[in-house]
Amino acid sequence: MPLLRVWLVSIVLLAPAAVFAKGPAPDDPWFQANQAELVALYTHLHTHPELSFQEVKTAERIAEELTQAGAVVTTGVGKLGVVGIMKNGPGPTVLVRTDLDALPVAEETGLPYASKATAVDSAGKSVSVMHACGHDIHMTCLVGVARWLATHKDQWAGTALLIGQPAEEMISGAKAMLDDGLYTRFPRPDFALALHVTADQPTGTVTYTSGPALAGSTAVDVQIKGKGGHGASPHSTVDPIVLAALAILDFQTIVSREINPIHPAVLTVGSIHGGTKHNIISNEVKLQLTLRAYRDDVRDQLIEGIKRRVKGLAQAHQAPEPVVSIVESTPPTINTPSLVTRILPVLIETLGASNVKEVEPVMGAEDFGLYGRGGVPTFMFRLGSIPPQRLNEATAKGEVLPSLHSALYHPDPAPSIQTGIRAMTAAILELMPAQP
Fold first, then answer.
1. 133 labelled as ligand-binding?
2. pTM (2 decimals)?
3. Residue 317, marked binder
4. According to the UniProt entry, where is the signal peptide (predicted)?
5. Catalytic positions, please?
6. Is 169 flagged in the annotation as binding?
7. Which residues lie across from 94 on neighbouring strands?
8. Domains of the chain
9. Tens digit of pLDDT for each residue in 217-271?
10. Which residues pair with 229 in a beta bridge?
11. Beta bridge partners of 98
12. Hey, which of 51, 224, 236, 329 has its CA 20 to 30 A from 373?
């Protein structure tokens, strides 16, 4: 067990329970009064998913729910973002963020409330849409937290800044909201919190990482140019498909032979498009890459290596100059260690030491890290969403359960939502305790 956790558990075991602020208990009458409505809200959101920067109805519903809970709501922040402000006297300002968007995935869970939604994506293609990353759980937890804060104002003091953020999956929504004045038009937060479901932990639990938790992500487009012609006369062409194949293999040596091995880095080619027919050599091939790193200099090294390799291949094969474009980028999500240290004891006291687990950082990416702009301390913890029995059965069979973004991922709504609300309200009460 890591030393930090041993120290924190020791504090919890030695200190009186009254030292720590806590969220609602599982048998709290508040849950009995609200759980059915919250699960119904989750089911509605799951059945009506919307793609990034298309979350019109989703934003409207979250704005309506926050308004009914007593928040002063502003919509259209960063295009489709929602900001709800709940003031309760003097005290700190705590931002709590949820994401709104879903994914272009055709759901295969077979659930009675499975999504059958379709949409037209940014490329003009008709796609199926699913909440395969748990944003519907996140939204429901935010609404539950707002309701709980509204009915327990004797337990906290300050300002809750409740955020519904669009386009997390495009790692664009946080930047859009911040660029639209989130920290200037509204109260600037003293702390920023978020939760995110995980598909490999049981309901009733949360996991955390102190410091770097999620990698920075950069999307890169590479256009490899050639000289098209007949497939039977390759000598009269410059084949961009061959160049693309060479480039894809050569890209892997950037990580294996140029990046310091103690610095994590991932380079993945996720898409390759070129050609129209068996016997035609095309004029170009387009690649789409994702880069992951925890350091800006490592990210820059990956980009420079990509540019150098495709340029060198083009010169060697007498091909036109390739084009490398940075489509989008977001920094790593770093949980501020001092904030983690402060909140962990109340999570342990609220959920129990066995239900709060430290985990390693991952190379997945989030744009939540941007809320740390200007030195705002941030903390995102992970929320277990799988029934323990389902996990135990999979382990016994040697099976791996569906991951996030899978068409088969489905959380257990009621206990996931309950734990998310308990954990988040406990964190908020620690940061915004009632004034004596």
1. yes
2. 0.90
3. no
4. 1-21
5. 101, 168
6. yes
7. 160, 191
8. 3-213+332-431 (3.40.630.10), 215-330 (3.30.70.360)
9. 999 999 999 999 999 999 999 999 999 999 999 999 999 999 999 999 999 999 9
10. 281
11. 164
12. 51
